[in-house]
Amino acid sequence: MSLQLDGVTLTMHGETYIDNACLTLEPGSFNVLLGHTLAGKTTLMRLMAGLDRPDRGRILVDGRDVTGEPVRRRNISMVYQQFINYPTLTVFDNIASPLRQARVARREVTRRVEETAAMLGIDNLLDRYPQALSGGQQQRTAMARALVKDADVILFDEPLVNLDYKLREALRHEMRKLFASRHTIAVYATTEPAEALALGGTTTLLHEGRIIQSGSSDQVYRAPCNREAARLYGEPPINLVAMRRRGQECHIGKGALPVPSVWQTLPDGDYSLGVRPHHLLSVPAAEAGSPGRQSGSAVDSAGEVVWRFPAYVRVAEISGSETFLHIGHGDLEMVAHLEGIHELDVDQALTMQVACRRLFVFDAEGNLLLSPSAPQPSLSRV
Amino acid sequence: MTLRKSLVMLLYLLFVLVPIYWLVNMSLKSNREILGGLTLWPTAPTLDNYRVIFTEPSWYTSYLNSLTYVSMNVVISLLVALPAAYAFSRFRFLGDKHMFFWLLTNRMAPPAVFLLPFFQLYSAVGLFDTPIAVALAHCLFNVPLAVWILEGFMSSVPKEIDETAYIDGYTFPKFFVRIFLPMIRPGIGVTAFFCFMFSWVELLLARTLTSVDAKPIVAQMTRTVSAAGIDWGVLAAAGVVALLPGVAVIYFVRNHVAKGFALGRV
Questions:
Q1: What is the pTM (predicted TM-score) of this model?
Q2: From CA A71, how far away is CA A153, in angstroms rounded?
Q3: B179, A88: Cβ pair inside 8 Å?
Q4: Cα A143 from Cα A93, distance rounded (Å)
């Protein structure tokens, strides 16, 4: 079955929570809802589930309007961020509860509960009560209850947020396996771009109650439709730099560079450039010569224009074998994601560079004009 | 240190238990011994006083009357307060906060204020001198309390539990009885306990709204003065018997109220 949102709008207390959402979820698809907190992910899921009723718009299941239908009659299940189980029932009864409500035969209930529990690795805990379980086991119980009933739509509202890092990795990995062989529509809300990329499938970006882009995970990553989408899908978020084209020169900050071949089609005007943090490189002092005060250009070995600019170190965060470098350039603040450990002092002068063909170009309204032509180096490095 | 601590504990228990001991002590003595002088325990223990309580209809019926209206009151209070508390804890409606506070103001008035209206109203509709009259009158005080206590417990249950139940296919009544009520069992225990306590010890309304048929034990106990003077022994025995339901209730709810006395607002 497919689920379709048609111009769904929800306003509460004069505030718009969801603004004209149109979205089609294909049967058997794995959909990630990505957005900041308060972007409306939970609200959108509640609308899909039928827990809330939209003010305007329709929700269609296989083309049939189910907008006003109570949640009890829809075949959905939901897993919350908090670990929600019935504390007065054992794990077995918790998992069995949707089946019992659907009047499934007793033997069938036992079989399916045991099967689902085994799949999630909690089959040895069936006669315990949820309070006696660890957080991960509680969430597995909640997930088992959601999976056991063969729902048409399964909604996961940041289910892994309250778990520790290791468990999250493990459960996330299992998630994809669980859905590989199902015809269920899975919807998974998260605030983390890395999680969205790791899960893959279809990604829908939500920003302030609006759906700004929806498409396959790497398509959205490679060609975010506008500045918000680009900032949303990347951690650390993409850097945005103002650029003005005048004839055969591009002005960035106080410096100027010749128009790279990939930008030749752009008319004169104002643009903003999106710089992925991992595309920014620090130029060795020997190669850069004396750090100039102005940004300028260089030409790399392949004859491509490279934007090179002086910058000051604000903070260097070292995390394992990578460095997140917060740098200032004039009134511009940027984050660079460098491989390896770079111990840099605050206010140390650096020369940074980025190849122009790796830059996203947005028009003055923020819509995408050009995305990097070269394939992304690797998707795992967000 | 532990010795000193246990000494304090012992003294405390002694002071608390002395009146109760004295009551039991008296109930096992004859009137002559009670009036005769100070004896720390019955020199000639007798169960005559209890025999009077359990054989004389005026005593044991008043005892049953009390139990009747108290149980009625506990049941009515819970039946009314459970849905009300659920509404206050789960829904936002016009004036909900004001209404919630207004409920409590009912308890701020002394029961005597409601004496006259209840008396007149019940006489007019023919409820006077029935157990249900007292039970309903006590609801005025117990329902607000019950709503307050239960609301606290219900609000500590996440709303997502309700939603999960609907998603699982429960209807509202089924969810409420099978899932929700077991979750707030300590709260129900505490609420029942408070309702019981108020209703059991309340004297003024209970005495005024009854005369003969539904006379409660507390009223009966104030009417033991006869031509022969006060029957101390029987009165003491009545007192002991009147304590028992409280003891029984505490015994049955003790496991539920341990958490419950925090009133759910932990």
A1: 0.81
A2: 12
A3: yes
A4: 14
Is A221 buried (19+), middle (13-18) or exposed (0-12) by CB count in 10 A?
A: buried
The tokens for B136 are: 């309903």
Partner residue facing A101 (CB), from B160, B163, B168: B168
Q: Is A126 left (phi over 0), alpha (psi -120 to 50) or beta?
A: alpha
Decide yes or no: CATH 3.40.50.920 for domain A239-370: no
Domain boundaries, chain B: 1-46, 57-260
Reported as a single tens digit per residue, the pLDDT across B67-123 is: 999 999 999 999 999 999 999 999 988 988 898 888 888 778 888 888 899 999 999
- Tell me the pLDDT of chain A averaged across its residues: 86
ipTM for the predicted complex: 0.81
What are the chain B neighbours of A104 within 8 Å (beta carbons)? none
Boundaries of every domain in chain A: 3-225, 239-370
Confidence at residue B46, expressed as pLDDT on a 0 to 100 scale = 87
Q: Specify the higher pLDDT residue, A288 or B213.
A: B213
User: Which positions in chain B touch A80 (Cβ < 8 Å)?
Assistant: 160, 164
Q: Look up residue A377 and give its two tokens.
A: 């180096």
pLDDT one-digit tens code per residue, A146-187: 989 888 899 999 988 888 888 788 888 888 787 877 788 999
Q: Which CATH architecture has domain A3-225?
A: 3-Layer(aba) Sandwich (3.40)
Average pLDDT over residues A258-262: 84
B156, B164, B174, B177: which to substitute to probe chain A, counting the most A Cβ within 10 Å?
B164
Residues in chain A closer than 8 A to B174 (CB atoms): 101
Closest residue in A to B163 (Cα) is A51
Max mean pLDDT among A74-88, A348-362, B95-109 falls in A74-88
- Interhelix angle B131-155/B57-90, nearest 10 degrees: 30
Beta carbons of B90 and B96 less than 8 angstroms apart: no
Nearest Cβ partner for B166 among A72, A102, A149: A72
C-alpha distances (whole Å) from A53 to each of A31, A46, A113, A172 are 21, 8, 32, 30
The b-or-e profile of A249-272 (16+ CB within 10 A means b, else e) is ebebbebbbebbebbeebeeeebb
Q: Domain B57-260 adopts which CATH fold?
A: MetI-like fold (1.10.3720)
Residue-level pLDDT at A198? 87
pLDDT band at A302 (very low <50, low <70, confident <90, very high): low
Please write the tens of the pLDDT for every residue from A306-318.
888 888 899 888 8
SS3 letters across chain A? CCEEEEEEEEEECCEEEEEEEEEEECCCCEEEEECCCCCCHHHHHHHHHCCCCCCEEEEEECCEECCCCCHHHCCEEEECCCCCCCCCCCHHHHHHHHHHHCCCCHHHHHHHHHHHHHHCCCCCCCCCCHHHCCHHHHHHHHHHHHHHCCCCEEEEECCCCCCCHHHHHHHHHHHHHHHHCCCCEEEEEECCHHHHHHHCCEEEEEECCEEEEEEEHHHHHHCCCEHHHHHHCCCCCCEEEEEEEECCEEEECCEEEECCHHHCCCCCEEEEEEECHHHCEECCHHHHCCCCCCCEEEECCCCCEEEEEEEEEEEEEEECCEEEEEEEECCEEEEEEEECCCCCCCCCEEEEEEEHHHCEEECCCCEEEECCCCCCCCCCCC
pLDDT (0 to 100) of residue A300 = 65
Residue B258 has what pLDDT? Answer: 62
Mean pLDDT of chain B: 87
